[in-house]
Design goal:
CATH architecture of the largest domain: 3-Layer(aba) Sandwich
Order of helices and strands: HEEEEHHHEHHHEHEHEHEHEEHHEE
Strand order of the largest sheet: 8-7-6-9-10-11-12-13
Radius of gyration: 25 Å
Number of helices: 13
CATH class of the largest domain: Alpha Beta
Shape: globular
Helix content: 25-40%
Number of strands: 13
CATH topology of the largest domain: Rossmann fold
Strand content: 5-15%
Bound molecules: zinc ion
């Protein structure tokens, strides 16, 4: 895409005092090139700089000058190059569009108190590091999180850890749904609960623990079991308490695995209501999270069908894939696998709510604890023949269930 010089200048002038983000600090390689954005794969880049003025540019973008003064500083220090102002402005614009620059002159948003800025300051700098989108303020993602309304179904091992991470991070409103009571066998992994909570509804114990963690978050909940897609639809569309602007939840997080069809139901209801959602869990040492947004890439069913084809489990026609990794009546899990699963779910929520990191939904990723360095990653295109989101008519079984 060609960007006009006037547009480039306009982008640059939105910044009062452009500064290379501290986390993206540039350095010069032995070849004289400029490496910027840190050495983290997915963030950093290398810029050729045969004449040395790009290095001067990144040095000048230290948050002490306005854009015009940055251009003047670069041209002043390289008089022999006959640099045009447009060249320098264009390079500055490239750096801004790549996400390496923040506006040191942008005041913190008035909506965030000094106490909140202190509380969430470290998280803001991590978001700033992982963010590759130009923003008016580096606090913008924190505001998005504070305005967010999230529905969490299941507050056990995965859901409890996800709730803990989101509430600590400053999510605005979390509504928790959970029917069970705390049992002794839960305590090896459900770390929101203690021995004094045995026999108590998990919902009450979780809300008490989360309120103690962060009074900034609006915490609500209901003791309820999801028995069908209608229950999920009811939960999603009847936001309680209803937000002043009348909008339902921004996001569904599914951390329940009963009944077994619950993910299929969530997929269907989220497609129908246009709700982004994520689900996480573990199967033995495999821990993963899937994140989905209607209209953006594969849905849960697309991904599941594509993965079944890819894995080629050598199943006979009609044989259910669960025979290859059976579900056990007990739940092999500890605080590590449940905690990782919940943290991945919270991470997916931040991605869907704030766009950080800029990972497109319609994928599943995670860890295989048996083989460090062997990441779990699934991504597929949206499938035309998908029975949930596809455009071709679905094949229907005699009992009316779409397949
Ligand atoms: Zn689909």
């Amino acid at each position: 895409m060609t960007v006009r010089a006037t547009d480039r200048a306009a982008t640059v002038r939105t910044m009062r005092r452009p500064r290379i983000k501290p986390e993206h600090r540039a350095y010069r390689t032995v070849d004289g090139n400029v490496r910027i954005g840190s050495v983290v794969h997915g963030i950093g880049a290398e810029v050729l700089d045969p004449d040395g003025w790009v290095w001067t540019l990144v040095e000048a973008m230290d948050g002490t000058r306005g854009p015009d003064d940055v251009v003047a500083e670069v041209t002043r220090r390289h008089p022999g190059l006959a640099l045009a102002d447009e060249d320098v402005t264009g390079a500055m614009d490239d750096l801004i569009r790549a996400g390496y620059v923040e506006d040191a002159g942008a005041p913190p948003p008035a909506e965030l108190t000094a106490r909140e800025q202190e509380r969430y300051g470290r998280g803001m700098t991590l978001m700033r590091w992982m963010d590759l989108r130009p923003r008016a303020s580096s606090w913008e993602p924190q505001l998005l999180l504070r305005r967010a309304r999230v529905l969490l179904v299941g507050v056990g091992g995965t859901g409890g850890a996800a709730a803990r991470d989101l509430v600590a991070s400053g999510v605005g409103h979390l509504h928790c749904v959970e029917p069970d009571v705390v049992e002794l066998s839960n305590l090896n992994r459900q770390t929101l609960f203690g021995e004094s909570d045995l026999g108590r509804p998990k919902l009450d114990a979780a809300l008490a623990a989360l309120r103690a963690l962060n009074a900034d978050t609006t915490l609500t909940g209901e003791r309820r079991e999801v028995r069908g897609p209608g229950d999920l639809e009811d939960l999603l569309t009847a936001a309680k308490p209803r937000h002043p602007d009348g909008a339902p939840y921004d996001l569904l997080l599914l951390a329940a695995d009963r009944p077994p069809e619950i993910r299929r139901w969530a997929n269907r209801v989220c497609l129908a209501t246009g709700t982004p959602w994520a689900e996480a869990g573990y199967r033995g040492p495999l821990v993963s999270v899937g994140m989905f947004a209607p209209g953006r890439g594969a849905c849960w069913q697309c991904l599941r069908d594509a993965e079944a084809e890819r894995r080629d489990l050598r199943l006979a026609p009609g044989q259910d894939e669960d025979v290859a990794s059976p579900r056990m009546p007990w739940n092999p899990v500890n605080a590590v696998t449940a905690g990782l699963s919940g943290s991945l779910l919270a991470h997916a929520a931040l991605t869907l709510l704030c766009g950080i990191p800029p990972v497109e939904p319609g994928c599943r990723f995670g860890l295989n604890l048996m083989v460090p360095g062997d990441p779990v990653l699934q991504r597929s295109e949206r499938r035309d023949d998908c029975p949930a989101c596809g455009t071709r008519p679905a094949v229907t079984t005699p009992d009316g269930e779409a397949r």
